[in-house]
Write a structure and sequence with these properties.
Layout (H helix, E strand, L loop, with lengths): L1 E5 L14 H13 L5 E3 L2 E8 L2 E8 L6 H12 L6 E7 L7 E4 L8 H10 L6 E5 L9 H5 L8 H20 L2 H8 L9
Parallel strand pairs: 1-4, 1-5, 5-7
Antiparallel strand pairs: 2-3, 3-4, 6-7
Amino acid sequence: MLLVVGLGNPGLRYSSTRHNVGFRFIDLMAKRAGIRLNDRRAKAVLGQGRIAGQEVVLAKPRTFMNNSGEGIEYLLARFGGRPSDLLVVYDEMALPTGRIRLRAAGSHAGHNGIRSIISSVRTDEFPRLRIGVGPPSSGGRSIPHVLGKFSKEEEPLIAQAVQDAVAAVRCLLEESIDVAMNRYNVIGNQTGN
């Protein structure tokens, strides 16, 4: 079983923000796979099903970004999973808008949601897929940037990145994380992103 967790903040106030691109990914993955996100337990909204012949759980923690580790702990306990059974999808300011990057493991690189998860599961050895939301404008601050909405110019890039991320996860399930990394980590390079 693969536990695919998109990070974000619950509530309509945050639904269209850069920080919620992980939730947006889960919504599209669920729609494409025909998985209903109808289980609204205390710490996560989730749905279960099969993608590419494999059992998956798609989840959106309801613990707010900076406490994502609580939601992950709950999900791992509920499904009897290990950190290596995770795939965490989240926003990344260090990547240009619209670029995706899949990794088998890594540090938190300053992302508070990932920092919380690493602290809770006591390892950084879990796969993650970052969706680039770009850095704040020159002199801009991080928090208003990630809690801000995408511009009209950014929106098509993000829509494509989320679709690419869904395809990358399907590739991971059908083939392997290495094949998915080789195929999808280069997307966006051709256009200079």
